[in-house]
Amino acid sequence: MENKSHAFWAGLFTIALSLAIAATVFWFNVDRTVRVPYDLIARTNVTGLYPDAAVRYRGLDVGKVQSIGFDRTHPGQILIRILVDQGAPITRSTFGSLGFQGVTGIAFVQLDDTGRDLSPLPSSTKAIAQIPMHPSLFDQLQQRGEVLVRELELVAQSANALMSPDMRAQLQATAASLQQAADGVTALSKQVQPAVAGLPTTMRELNRTMASADTLLRPNGPVVENLNKAGAAAAQIGTTLDALNARVQYDTLPRFNTLATDVGDASRTLKDVAGDVGRNPRSLLFGSPGSAPGPGEPGFVWPGAAAGSQAAAGSQ
Fold it and tell me: Residues 81, 135: contact at Cβ < 8 Å?
């Protein structure tokens, strides 16, 4: 009887422990996030998208796909019901597109925002808001497939024209010219190699020359000392010339001016003497005659009377 009671309690404990483990697993696995439903309106293919696929807002997980189905009111239009976290910034300018995970082909919903209208987009189970679905990259490629094919045809035609016999001949001539240029560069490099080999020696000689020039041009070097001596000598010569100029200006020139004045006076006197001798040569022997008596002086004769007396004497 006692063994049966122990077995009963052991079984009851096992059942209670199993229920507790199941409740703990359910508690930790249950999703308590409050999500808001939205309908994505798609008019393109949704290949690779399945229920429970991820919904991401600019790369961040914000929900999952609940269901995918046709819109009965608009043939050819697909309704994708998504559940989005209540805190996701869904606005009136939010749109959706399909994204693909690597090379697996599994699609997910990528939400983004154009930023034109940042007012929140309200939604609830009674009034589900709709979000437009933009074409994915593959849909855009499919829509532009014909244009791409035509452009590829044009590229192929251009390539055929480029590979015409004339163009091939020109390309061959260009390749030959390039080969000749490469050969010329090779020959030039061989000619330059001796000069390049002599560059270290030239650089050493140049360094020595620069060192010598640096030694000569130092503040205490011989060149600078000679230049300083030459400058001092030039300064002394300038001082001497200044003194000589001052002496000539203030001492010699006044004397020369006086001598020139005396010479001028003597020349004028000599000129006067020469004039007197020319007019009266007897003055050299007998001296210069005295001055004629003036009116009222003894011996003064009026010029007219002297002429009349001389004429009367002549008639007698």
Answer: no
Q: For strand 54-57 and strand 94-100, is the pairing parallel, antiparallel, or unpaired?
A: unpaired
How far, in Å, CA of 195 to CA of 192, rounded?
Answer: 5
**Interatomic CA distance for residues 70 and 43, integer angstroms:** 10
Kindly list the distances between the CA atom of residue 211 and the CA atoms of 14, 16, 188, 204, 205, in Å, as whole numbers in the listed order. 100, 100, 34, 10, 10
> Please, how many CA atoms are within 13 Å of residue 165, restricted to the half-sphere of its CB?
0
**154 vs 136, residue with greater confidence:** 154
- Orientation angle between helical segments 199-216 and 222-247, nearest 10 degrees: 40
Tens of pLDDT, residues 62-90:
999 999 999 888 888 899 999 999 888 99
Amino acid, res. 209: T
Report whether 51 contacts 66 (CB < 8 A).
yes
Residue 239's contacts (CB-CB under 8 Å, 6 or more residues apart) are: none
- Its pTM stands at 0.41
Q: Which of 200-214, 273-287, 300-314 has the lowest mean pLDDT?
A: 300-314
- In this predicted structure, what is the pLDDT of residue 308? 52
Distance in angstroms (rounded) separating the CA atoms of residues 81 and 130:
9
Q: How many residues does the chain have?
A: 316
d(CA 175, CA 167): 12
